[in-house]
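Notes from the 1:1 (GR / supervisor)

We went over the backlog. Supervisor wanted to see one worked example end to end before approving the batch request, so GR pasted a single chain during the call. The sequence is below; no edits were made to it. Supervisor asked that the structure be written out right there so they could see what the output format looks like.
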Amino acid sequence: MHAAGPEPSGAARLCLRCKEQNALYEIRSEPACGACFAAFVRVKVAKRFEVVDRESRSKVGRGTAHYLIGLSLGPSSSAMVNIFDELDERSAKKRRPVSSSFRVVHVDTSLLDPLSPRPSRWLSHWKATYPRFTFETVPLTDALSLASIDWPSLPSLNSDLPPEARLRDLFGRLPSSTSRADVTRVFVRHILMSTAAAHRCCALLLGNNTTSLAALTLTETAKGRGFSLPWLTNDGARDVAVSHPGQNQEEAETISQIVHFPLRELYRKELVTYAGLVEMDKDKDLGIYGYERSSGSVVSHKDQSIDDVMARYFEDIELSFPSVVANVVRTAAKLSSGEPRQPCGLCGADIDLHGDQTWKGEMGDEDTTSAPSLASAQAGHRLCYGCDRSING
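Structure output shown during the call:
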């Protein structure tokens, strides 16, 4: 189902942009043909990316500007790969002195769901479809070796187990489906940021759209991470600890990594429609999931995470009240992080100590911190309130 897709048959209307083709789609209530709709989406992305690209080109001189695209195999990040392939092709034809190089990285989380197919079966087809890009699959277990995660602040892991078993053991001890979804998302973000920093990429390009950013805003607020919203949802530089082989966490190099959301001004329904226009939804070998909206009826919320609930809510809201969704994102974008503070050992966002204590007091769990967590905090390894709840319940 394409939320912004073809209108019901009836009296044919001309596209208000080209005034030549029949208008089978709508661009923010404006009748448009498929070609103009696709052009609208590409222009939106190009204009947002222009600022980052200009800054990158000024840094690299006449060299190559490297970018990393995070690919989840959802419709938004998949459409983003197609859009940047189109933009890169047009840029190459202009023969500019500064070239761009795109590395597309998918984090394999299939170890958490044994029944899900390995993404390697899809990535070979992605490589053939977009030969200008470099594709890479990174296992979720790579999070275990990241210097950007303060492992002493988390529950101890059995070092005798192989990496996959070690990670399964950690997730098996988490208290809820929301905790598992939360920690998975945090690990994926860490891996993408560390990979971008290790490859000295000018920017990490994430596929969050207006709808998913609105859902993320309310999700993180509900989890007690409202203080970290500027760090999680805004464009800008983030400090990333990157260690080299043979180095321990204390010797890690801190790199400033730009994070950018090129799809920030596009709704999910618009990107689903775009993917249909370029026929990505018909190419089953790409392994893209999530084109169809979830059924409105939910039998049980027991196994649903807060992330799932908020995603469903904003997917529904964007159909009738898109301005409400956009206002959530615009309001969050006005927030600033203030002075740097001690980072959370898990998510990496600055910890608001006063806010954390307020949250704990209002929730009535001031004294629920476990003994290992308390000892870890006293040693300088701290978690924000949201991460503490995800790990310890």
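Supervisor's comment: The domain at 40-287+305-392 is CATH 3.40.50.620 (Rossmann fold).
Batch request approved.
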